[in-house]
Design brief:
Blueprint: H1 4-22, H2 31-41, H3 48-59, H4 68-85, E1 95-96, E2 99-100, H5 102-105, H6 108-127, H7 137-148, H8 153-170, H9 177-202, H10 207-218, H11 223-230, H12 242-256, H13 267-278, H14 285-305, H15 317-325, H16 327-339
Antiparallel strand pairs: 1-2
C-alpha cells in the first residue's frame, strides 16, 4: 500500500540534503548575502514543487535522481518569489512560515539581492543539468523562464498588486472572479505546471505523456466551485442557515469576490412555473376563483341534465370543455328554468 506521508518525507529530505550541499556556505563572501539566501531557503517549506517534479519523472519511467537538480532549481525560484512578495513595496509581510521575513531578519536591500541571487542560481542549476535525448538543458531553462515571466508568476503578481491598489481607491473589499482566476492560475499555477513538465522532461517523457501530465497539472477548480465548497457546512455538508450563512457568505465575498446578483422573476412567470411543475395543483388566486365559479356552473348544469356529481355518472372531458364555452348562455338559461322567466324572456312552455 502506498504511504503518501512517508513518500513526501523521504523526498523532502532528499531535496533538503541536495540543497545543503549545493548552496553556497554562509562563510563564503559575501557572507551576509549567502546567510540571507540560506535563511530563506531553509525556512521550513513543504518542497511541494520539487516533489511534484520528482513524481512526474517517476511517473514516465525515469530515475528521480536525474530530476533532482532541476527540481531544486524550481524551489530556488519559488523562494525568490516569496522573498520579493514579502517586501514593503508589495505585500509588506512581517512573517513567513512563523519566522520573520527576509527583509525583517536582515534588511530590505539584502532581501532584494538574496532574491535576485536565488533567481540567477536557479537558471545556473538548470543549465548544468543533464537531460535525456531528444531534450536538452535548454528545455529546462525555457520551461522555467516561460512560467516565471510576465505571462506567468510575475504577471500574476502584477495583477494582484493592481487589484489591491484599485480596491483601495474605490474602497472595495473584493475582486471579481475572473481576475482571481487569472491571479491564481499565473501567480501559483504556472510554476506548478512547470515543475511537472520539467520532471517529465527529465524522465524522458514522450509527447503524449507530456501533454497528459500538463493537462493534469493545469486542472484546478474555478473560483465559483471553490466558493461553493467554502460556503458548505464543514460538519454535514449542508448549506449554512440564517445568520451563520450570511457571515459565511460575507467571508466568501472577501475571499473570492462578490456574487452575481440574481434577476428577480416576475410574478406571472413564477405562477406559470408553479402550474407547469405541479400540474395546476397550486393555482394563483385568480385562477382558483375562476375554477370555483366553473365548478358551480357545472353543478347547476348537471342538475339541469338530471345527473349527479356524486353518482357514477360524471361529465366527460369533452362535455366539460363544451360547457365552459357555453357557461354564460347556459347559466342564464338554467336560472330561467329554475326560478321562473323574468320579464321579457320566454320560459319555454
Amino acid at each position: 500500500m502506498f504511504d503518501l506521508d512517508s513518500y513526501l518525507t523521504t523526498r523532502r529530505q532528499r531535496v533538503d540534503e541536495f540543497m545543503q550541499r549545493k548552496m553556497p556556505p554562509e562563510t563564503a563572501r559575501p557572507a551576509r548575502l549567502h546567510a540571507a539566501m540560506r535563511y530563506s531557503i531553509f525556512g521550513g517549506g513543504k518542497r511541494l514543487r520539487p516533489i511534484l517534479a520528482l513524481a512526474a519523472c517517476e511517473a514516465v519511467g525515469g530515475e528521480s535522481a536525474r530530476a533532482l537538480q532541476p527540481a531544486c532549481a524550481i524551489e530556488l525560484l519559488h523562494t525568490y518569489t516569496l522573498i520579493h512578495d514579502d517586501l514593503p513595496a508589495m505585500d509588506d509581510d512581517a512573517l513567513r512560515r512563523g519566522r520573520p521575513t527576509c527583509h525583517i531578519a536582515f534588511d530590505e536591500a539584502t532581501a532584494i539581492l538574496a532574491g535576485d541571487s536565488l533567481l540567477t542560481l536557479a537558471f545556473q542549476w538548470l543549465a548544468e543539468s543533464e537531460a535525456p535525448p531528444p531534450f536538452s538543458a535548454a528545455d529546462y531553462v525555457r520551461e522555467l523562464a516561460v512560467a516565471a515571466g510576465s505571462d506567468g508568476v510575475i504577471g500574476g503578481q502584477a495583477e494582484d498588486i493592481a487589484a489591491e491598489n484599485l480596491a483601495r481607491k474605490k474602497n472595495a473589499t473584493a475582486a471579481d472572479a475572473e481576475l482571481l482566476d487569472y491571479i491564481h492560475a499565473h501567480k501559483t499555477g504556472d510554476l506548478i505546471v512547470a515543475a511537472v513538465r520539467i520532471g517529465a522532461i527529465a524522465g524522458g517523457a514522450t509527447k503524449p505523456q507530456l501533454e497528459k501530465l500538463t493537462t493534469s497539472a493545469r486542472g484546478r477548480p474555478r473560483v465559483s466551485n471553490r466558493r461553493r465548497h467554502f460556503e458548505r457546512d464543514l460538519d454535514g455538508g449542508a448549506p449554512w442557515q440564517g445568520r451563520r450563512h450570511r457571515r459565511r457568505a460575507r467571508q466568501a465575498d472577501l475571499r473570492f469576490g462578490p456574487r452575481p446578483r440574481r434577476r428577480k422573476t416576475p410574478r406571472r412567470r413564477i405562477n406559470f412555473r408553479i402550474r407547469r411543475r405541479t400540474g395546476n395543483f397550486r393555482r394563483p388566486r385568480r385562477a382558483a376563483s375562476r375554477a370555483r365559479r366553473s365548478r358551480r356552473h357545472a353543478q347547476q348544469l348537471t342538475r339541469i341534465r338530471g345527473r349527479s356529481r356524486r353518482g357514477n355518472h360524471s361529465m366527460t372531458s369533452n362535455d366539460w370543455k363544451l360547457s365552459r364555452r357555453q357557461l354564460p348562455i347556459i347559466g342564464i338559461y338554467a336560472g330561467c328554468l329554475l326560478n321562473g322567466a323574468p320579464r321579457g324572456i320566454s320560459s319555454g312552455r
